[in-house]
Amino acid sequence: MVYIEHMSDPFDLGGAEPLPGEPAPPPYLSGLNGEQRAAVEATDGPLLVLAGAGTGKTRVLTSRLANILWSQKAWPSQVLAVTFTNKAAREMRERLETLLGGTVEGLWIGTFHAMAARILRRHAELVGLKSDFTILDTDDQIRLLKQLLSAANIDDKRWPARALSAVIDRWKNAGLSPQQIGQGHPLDNGFANGKAAELYAAYQQRLVELNAADFGDLLLHCLSIFAKYPDVLKDYQERFRYILVDEYQDTNVAQYLWLRLLAQSHHNICCVGDDDQSIYGWRGAEVGNILRFEKDFPGAAVVRLERNYRSTPHILGAASGVIAHNQGRLGKTLWTDTNEGEPVQVRAVWDGDAEARMVGDEVEALQSKGDTLDEMAVLVRASFQTRAFEERFITLGVPYRVIGGPRFYERREIRDALAYVRAVVSPADDLAFERIVNVPKRGLGDATMRTLHTTARASGVSLMAAAQVLCETDDLRAQARNALQRLLNDFARWRGLLSTMNHPELVEVILDESGYTSMWQQDKSADAPGRLENLKELIQALEEFENLSGFLEHVSLVMDNAANDDGDMVSLMTLHGAKGLEFDTVFLPGWEEELFPHQRALDEGGLAALEEERRLAYVGLTRARKRAIVSYAANRRIFDRWVNSAPSRFIEELPEDHIEREGETGLSATEWHDPGAAPAWLKPAHRGIREDRAPRWAARGQADHVFDEGDRIFHQKFGYGRILEMDGDKLYIAFEKAGDKTVLASFVEPAK
DNA sequence: AGATGTACCATTTTT
DNA sequence: TGGTACATCT
What is the pTM of this model? Predict the structure, then answer.
């Protein structure tokens, strides 16, 4: 049974036919439980699916999509399915095609940004752009802002472009264009004493001049078009009979407004999400969007998915116990009928090295029992934490992969190559030209570029046009002029080849003739061969596209990292990176106050941030199918300094019935120091440490001293202070330098 | 213009 | 500790 739709232009509904409608049982309903089926078959209208971790939410979303198409409620081109990542979009499409037993064409399925870009290309002129506008990434954005800042004579030491970029991103995430922002806007943060709004406007102006849009613009421009041109909006409202949204809890205001507008005609919007897994508040996601769904879409149906298929009851119990400490949840009670399994293990260790050894030993033990490394993951709060585990795994010879890191198109060589292509395709792309004008080195340095900029600005032309003018005068030194002329000739020649040569070949020619390839061939550094590999990969990827501009869009919006899936390996990643994944065994190291929850998050976001950190803990635990091992170190070397740390408050929040402690309660502090008493991974690793730098043991409740209120004390990190109040082993102390803090007694000694 | 030295800093990250 | 941005030297 094959599902086909013949439609080359997704905007043209003319040739589209509904499904062939063969009389066979719908394949997308088999194996669904009652609550899943309710979500899949819910009648039209707004629908919120509150799906807990491991309840099969992606499956439900896909099945609902299959149902819509199968029962001919809409043609594929009338359905919009949005996700946050390309990976999620790809997976959804693959599952859908499996369910329907054939390919589906014309469907609007992809990321928010890709879908918005698709709309924006058709109406670019309404916001002053051409339909072939380039999409800038963060790197380009920051380079552009740097120029604007220096033009405005703003000290970039005090007010770095990066900070301005963050302010502008915040505004864009909130759906605010420059016209909507007054002086002293609350999201401004006082950048350059209130200049941010002005700079934002200048930046948008410059983007139009460059015929460019940044990621935020893709949505924001759509919003302003919808606001200004109701007929355009109406067109899309009519078109999209069904809208499906994954990970709704992660939508920011701009995405929310975009969706709400598009759903206004048919009201068939189905959002799937889990408020307990909202972990992107810091980049503009609004949990409020999911909490408010029923108000925003009157008459909305709400279906809860609470049956968890992933984890054992102990893991689920531990995770639920932690998340129950959050206020303002929609509330779900996850349950499972799988076998009990092992309690979550909670392990106290001496320091970061001991922790890495513990994890390494455990990995080897599990492996020798027959577990595969693919089914093990180490999930950390901050990416620097992966290093300790990498080192340990290298020592042990355990294969591992680090998930995350720079994306393919963010790599320097890829961005350089793309800049060449961009500059060939669009001569007015100043940012691209600037990027590669002296890569490889051509003797075109700061001085030349300054002259180029002045000339370009004075006559209002692009840098390349200005360069052409300058080559005919003697404003530049002969050497620079010749180099520039040569480069311009190259570009003219390449541009001439655009129509005749096929594009993968052309890119290869450009990279060879510009000297870019040989630059890396001559580079002796260790990563040069890898970069050449990446360039080859880029050219290979080109072959799948009809033209260069299609490819450029793909690269900036769709291309993700090639999955490194050769061989059996342990995965190392951040908790954020682990969302949506699952493993038999999950290690959760570094559960210490200040690291997790991260102090910086708490400083910046207070209670809301603490709750987001707690959701991160919940996400981490619920990644595990069979086994979760949480650990915390008493001492940690962060950069060059030893820090004693208290166990994370999330450890206390783990329900005792579902955990098994090792190291803290079973052994006393004195026993820990006895080499025979503790398991190998508990022993201090450092033998030759000077006494003053050696970590001090800091087990909870194992204070070496008895204190009274009013005692003068000393703390390794905070210095001298006086005890104001005592609550068991918690001391409330007024430090002379560090202010008032609550500290565990074990970290404190009497002042001498 | 390019190389070399130095001070500084250090969540989380998709598009 | 390691990467980066800027200053200074050749």
Answer: 0.83
